[in-house]
């Protein structure tokens, strides 16, 4: 997916379950834990700073004692008079060295950073005094060195990200975890005896950082390493060259599998097919010719070079690394400790889809460490989009998911100092609408594009433009006694709607339909001929490879409609039509010609005398456009809230350009109702405002079932009101899909866990 990453990449929401393994075994390696005792008088740091509106003299004396304590530890003092400032300012918080008088002023004004009872950044290592309460804290040798040296290098940040700040398990880890911890300990030795600033790993990382920063060659790196060897003592641990440096830090990374592919995306050379030299479907060679050129210029390749290759990022070691990190492992039990408050869903685990899955597989869900993760697992090579053949590249992922579900893998949990058998399940995929078809096998083009309505769609093809329209597709979602159902004027003329939406099909029903139709997976033989014939009679174009997962049929939601792109497309259609942007407006000559063939709106028909079309009330005139755009240019937002929309204004062509998805998100929910309030009639402005508020409420960080049921009832009415205003050409599939968004949020939880903003921004 080098060139089509947006369409073919997807995120996997993983639910991880673990089964605690054997009982405690002897500790692994030296344990640098100690009992840390908290003094009673350390409470003064957070109490009594201000008394009767004045700074307390007693508190000031304690601050003087703290500063004197820090100055007694030269290793924590910079330049003789500067110590780390422990105040609450973001730029301080034990990160910045300041002179002692400035530190005192900061502490008087802001107080101490929370929970800094042990002054490890100011020389304190142990407290042995009597106390009323105690806290047992495990500190590693790496932490101790950081505390002693106060040198937060790139290496320390990277190691803490990779494995957390401590590596002192009570139970012996499995082989993979033990090798990782051994690598961390081995690299944590000083470069040479007496050096307190760099370890072997930190020096290696620093050298690689310099190489990348200044774009140095490998030859320069080797020469510089040799020169450094001449400067250091003979028993130093500095890597000798680029190769040994890369080998040293390689263990911090995670594995990536490079798999050869057919140049036509027919197959991958993996599993039983890994030894083939040509494609078993199209016959194309796997490797490029060894001899190339002509005449006297012939070049012979020494190595076999494949025409195409993909990169697969296994999820198992990535999940294991999460449990190996003390910074993350404790959070793996968050879901079991989290409880809904006031019926508000703030996480997918609060939603019915997650609870339904737990009920279907109680043995899997009984463990407390079920959590959700998002992974980008496959990079498919370009330049062409694999489209329906994406399943070819997902084979390693499906095989790994089946193994994680059925057998699991032994993993070490650093937070509990235990080995356990980790299992995992795929909850759903997150993708944009074109990729929805690639993942699910249901075509998202044509008159059956809606994956929820499926064959129950009422879309039709417009006479003049030849495009599909979802006009008058939403009255079937209304209550049976709603007056819009009997309206024969504002929608398709002379038509009443009596049918009702049958609801979303279950996984069992969909799987039964696929089996009855005989659809095949794209990796099967003769799949093109068989599936092409079947796809002419239905919306299915293949049997998705995800149905190979034994639990896939039990999910209430398997693929998410992407709210980000739907919202952007709805906004673009409204804005471009209201501003009458040439080439983008839905109010075209063809649209006017066919309008009265479907609706009773003679006031907008062509004047037979002048051959002109009358103005419509939902389009702004030139003066109104200028006013809106001038207002947008003057807008200012809080830092980080939105981009500068003024740069998107084209005052000459009276339009906006270059707006990203988030710009449209902000404009749709916050600005659109305000921008159009003074220029559109109420009967037009109100439905536009209602669709704006719908997206605003839908994308809230927490939602209740009652709120979502109300949105589910309101959105068909909102779409029907828009149908009374805009022509049939306005309503493509993107204007139809909002009718299903509240349902998906009600069963799967908050939208911000299930849209495309994380991977695309």
- The helix-and-strand class reads alpha+beta
Rg over CA atoms, rounded to whole Å, is 32 Å
Low-confidence stretches: 1-40, 126-154, 163-169
- Mean pLDDT, all residues: 84
- Total strands: the figure is 22
Largest sheet: 5 strands, mixed
Beta-strand fraction estimate: 5-15%
Number of helices: 28
Percent helix: 25-40%
What's the end-to-end separation, in Å? 17 Å
Overall 3D shape: globular
What can you tell me about this protein's structure?
- With 761 residues, the chain is an alpha+beta fold.
- Strands 1, 13, 15, 16 and 19 form a 5-stranded mixed beta sheet that branches. It has a 3-stranded antiparallel beta sheet with strand order 8-11-14, with no helix packed on it. A two-stranded antiparallel sheet has the order 2-7.
- Helix 2 packs antiparallel against helix 3 and helix 23 packs antiparallel against helix 24.
- The two termini are 17 Å apart.
- The N terminus is likely disordered.
What features would you highlight for this structure?
five-stranded mixed beta sheet; globular; three-stranded antiparallel beta sheet; disordered N terminus; 761 residues; 37% helix; alpha+beta; 11% strand
